[in-house]
Write a structure and sequence with these properties.
It contains no helices and eleven strands. By secondary structure, it is mostly beta strands.
């Protein structure tokens, strides 16, 4: 089992920044690719960003490219999502997820952290 705990959410004005963190425990962190997803009220959960096990490869949804940056620290078993130039449409619950390198799907999910961007 892998436990994931997100933090760093909150209320911010449009144009502002937030940095989300996800702390992992339970298994070897470097065996897992990590992803960030978000779910707005009444909508499905959407992919935001992902990072491979070494941190050398990242991927982003088109809607956040150039504004969000995903990073990881394998020594501290954490993954971060730096969010800049936030927009009201970024308002959602943000989840981190872990995918084992032998798995095709994300195996573990955090409980989520709320991000609210006011206009």
């Amino acid at each position: 089992q892998v436990q994931l705990v997100e933090s760093g959410g909150g209320l911010v004005q449009a144009g502002g920044s937030l940095r989300l963190s996800c702390a992992a425990s339970g298994r070897t962190f470097s065996n897992y690719a990590m992803g960030w997803f978000r779910q707005a009220p009444g909508k499905e959960r959407d992919f935001v960003a992902a990072i491979n096990r070494s941190g050398g490869t990242t991927a982003y949804a088109d809607s956040v490219k150039g504004r969000f940056t995903v990073s990881r620290d394998n020594a501290k078993s954490t993954v971060h999502l730096q969010m800049n130039s936030l927009k009201p449409e970024d308002t959602a619950v943000y989840y981190c997820a872990a995918r084992h390198y032998l798995s095709r799907e994300y195996d573990y999910w955090g409980q989520g952290t709320q991000v609210t961007v006011s206009s």
